[in-house]
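To fix ideas, we reproduce below one chain and its tokenised fold.
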Amino acid sequence: MSCRFLAAACLTIFAAASVSAQSSPMRPKITGISHLAIYTSDPAAAEHFYTVIVGAAKLPDPENPQGVQYAVSPTQFIEVLPLPPGAGVNRLDHSAWNTTSAEGMRKYLAAKGWKTPTHLEHGADGSRWFEVLDPEGNKVQFVQPPAHPQAIDAPNVIGHHIIHIGFLVHSRTGEDAFYRALLGFRPYWWGGSQPERIDWVSQQVPDGHDWLEYMLAAGPGEGIPPTMTQRTLGVLDHFSIGEASVPDAYKVLEAGDRLTGRHDAAPKIGRDGKYQFNLYDPDGIRLEMMNFHATDKPCCSPFTAADPLQ
């Protein structure tokens, strides 16, 4: 009888575990970057930067009728919003990631105990999304693009692929609990301005090659340090457009008289071994043009995942 009882108990436990596994939703794919949403104090100057210098297509904002979308591809863009009262030096509203199912992602995060909204938002273009806060209070959106994204008219765009975004982070461990443990982001590279420092930590999406860069230069604490300037914060809060050759892209900007405003003097090779060139929008948000592949050996850490696709 005891053997039969033990066998029955084991079957019951196995069945319960199976039911629990089946009832726990799977995480939908996170395929790459959707967009970065930023504020502007000068919409006309922002339009010049994003349409003339970057060459992106100006479109209506499907999320916010007061905003503007500057698209580099049918599924990637910069969302520019009016500067709200009390913004101070902050010009970052949220980051956003493309997923195969916004509702599936919402249910997945809710099942894991993360605070989520009760329903999705719907855009005029057919997109669906919702927003949560990461461990440091940064707003993060998960976007399901339209089933048939519209082609964009941007013949002069300097690149069609936003390969990474970055923002101020205080705790690598704290953010990893969300992006790595919960969402499945994967290590890509880390480095610092000095050999003994870790200033930048890159984490790739689980189902693609785009990445998030933790910008750790602000040190411990929380929020925006009271001594941080808008100029410094704009260096940390940034997005990157991938290039087959940054020096060649630089020549295109130079030949077209598109190098106005603040920017680097010339392309250079970064600590990760990739060519880069930095430009800044009128409110100081940094656009980092970056080679898809390294030219030199990276400092600090080897690349631990494949480079983004062109």
